[in-house]
């Protein structure tokens, strides 16, 4: 089917070499290909094998392999994505990506696409404009995050102050606290690769592209999208919220049996994402907080930095004390299936966008435990603006969460008769109904494609 009933589009995808970005761009590629449009997806050569299974339309989505240029200091020498290197070497990987510019030019000359979608390669708009290809900045974070952090109102020449909302920002609780702002400012001003600060890289991408696009909806983030359009004087296109596809597998028998032993809505599930990097102190505060709720819990957590397993970090006697009421699992678990299990009543999440949506389309209460930049914005949006969950109070001095704060937030949302619990349940139910509306994703995709087609005339 040709979404938009106009010109068949050919789009090149060029995401930052991180699995979260690659899979997000591929998800959008699938939505475009489902409507009959063609995608050429640029990916590091060896990484393609990790993406093949996510390509639902191989006749329309073609992977174009890229050799990652060697950069002095980037080890291992065959590194391709952020999964291959420690965090301090990310700028060197970005430098390598910047050095693909002549290869990208050759590919665009050969393919002659209508559009190129990109995110961190700020030089793409100037290159593509020379070749008569439209450039779309495609954000893997929320419009609210970009609007708050990179508004032109903050002024490139001035000292960055992220503690205050930018001038003209929509009425919102979205705001960094002082210690969060300091971390955000340091990151924005740091070298992101090729000697370019992350702030300058982002401002170049946003200012020079032909349009911005996000995986978001106007119903949830409309004011931030309008603000971006006014600030950057260019279209902001929305491809719609990412609704998880119904799982094709069933829950492992181990978890089905364990969860089945508890009452409806009584279990707390905690997961902080695949890139979470807690230290031992933070890890212990979290698991002891879950224990102190007195509720059954399943915590899917990576071992703290420097440890090989979660078992070696757990306090002495912890497992015996719980007697099966609580489990700390260090490996991968089927999050979507766990969240939809009737026994699960609360989800303690790091506020990654995927986890937020998975929480909203289920019935569990939401406790927000953000750790880095865009997760903070997501947490304020969910707890403050939409009021669908409760954010855990954080210690000002060590910038981490105290055991008591985590426990209190969980008990607050799990108290069915409490005022806060009633409010977040009511709002959660409203947004769940919206997200699960028939044809929501499809209608957003049609409108997204129609707006892309309109940019070509």
Automatic annotation (TrEMBL):
- Entry coiled-coil feature ranges: none
From the record, give the transmembrane residue ranges.
none
One Gene Ontology term of the molecular function aspect: UDP-glucosyltransferase activity
Q: Does the keyword Glycosyltransferase apply?
A: yes
InterPro entries noted in UniProt:
UDP-glycosyltransf_plant, UDP_glucos_trans, UDP_glycos_trans_CS
Task: Give the UniProt keywords, A-Z.
Answer: Glycosyltransferase, Signal, Transferase
EC number(s)? 2.4.1.-
Q: Is Membrane one of the keywords UniProt gives this record?
A: no
Q: Which residues form the signal peptide?
A: 1-20
Pfam family name, one? UDPGT
Q: What class of enzyme is it?
A: transferase
Q: Which PROSITE patterns does this chain map to?
A: UDPGT (PS00375)
As for family, the record states: Belongs to the UDP-glycosyltransferase family.
State the protein's name.
Answer: Glycosyltransferase
- Species in which this protein is naturally found: Papaver nudicaule
């Amino acid at each position: 089917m040709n979404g938009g009933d106009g010109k068949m589009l050919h789009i090149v995808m060029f995401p930052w070499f991180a699995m979260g970005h690659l899979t997000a761009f591929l998800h959008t590629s699938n939505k475009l290909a489902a409507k009959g449009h063609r995608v050429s997806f640029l990916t590091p050569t060896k990484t393609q094998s990790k993406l093949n299974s996510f390509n639902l339309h191989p006749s329309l989505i073609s992977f174009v392999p890229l050799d990652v240029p060697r950069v002095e200091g980037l080890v291992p020498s065959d590194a391709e994505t952020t999964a291959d290197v420690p965090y301090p070497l990310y700028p060197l990987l970005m430098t390598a990506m910047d050095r693909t510019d002549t290869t990208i030019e050759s590919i665009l000359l050969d393919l002659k696409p209508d559009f190129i979608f990109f995110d961190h390669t700020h030089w793409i708009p100037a290159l593509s404009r020379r070749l008569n290809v439209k450039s779309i900045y495609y954000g893997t974070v929320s419009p609210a995050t970009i609007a708050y952090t990179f508004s032109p109102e903050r002024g490139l020449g001035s000292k960055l102050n992220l503690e205050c909302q930018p001038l003209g920002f929509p009425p919102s609780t979205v705001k960094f606290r002082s210690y969060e702002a300091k971390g955000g400012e340091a990151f924005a001003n740091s070298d992101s690769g090729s000697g370019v600060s992350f702030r300058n890289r982002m401002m170049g991408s946003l200012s020079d592209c032909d349009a911005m696009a996000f995986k978001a909806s106007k119903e949830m983030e409309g004011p931030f999208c309008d603000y971006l359009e006014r600030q950057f004087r260019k279209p902001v296109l929305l491809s719609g919220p990412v609704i998880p596809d119904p799982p094709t597998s069933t829950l492992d028998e181990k978890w089905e049996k364990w969860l089945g032993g508890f009452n409806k809505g009584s279990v707390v599930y905690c997961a902080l994402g695949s890139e979470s990097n807690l230290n031992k102190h933070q890890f212990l505060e979290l698991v002891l907080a879950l224990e102190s709720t007195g509720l059954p819990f399943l915590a899917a957590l990576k071992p703290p930095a420097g440890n090989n397993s979660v078992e070696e970090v757990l306090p002495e006697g912890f497992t015996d004390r719980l007697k099966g009421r609580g489990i700390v699992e260090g490996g991968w678990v089927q999050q979507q299936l766990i969240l939809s299990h009737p026994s699960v009543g609360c989800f303690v999440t790091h506020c990654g966008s995927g986890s937020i949506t998975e929480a909203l389309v289920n019935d569990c209460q939401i406790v927000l435990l953000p750790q880095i930049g865009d997760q903070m914005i997501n947490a304020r949006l969910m707890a403050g603006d939409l009021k669908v969950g409760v954010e855990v109070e954080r210690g000002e001095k060590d910038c981490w969460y105290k055991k008591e704060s985590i426990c209190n937030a969980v008990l607050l949302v799990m108290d069915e008769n409490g005022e806060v619990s009633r409010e977040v349940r009511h709002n959660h139910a409203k947004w769940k109904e919206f997200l699960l509306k028939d044809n929501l994703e499809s209608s957003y995709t049609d409108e997204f494609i129609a707006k892309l087609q309109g940019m070509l005339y």
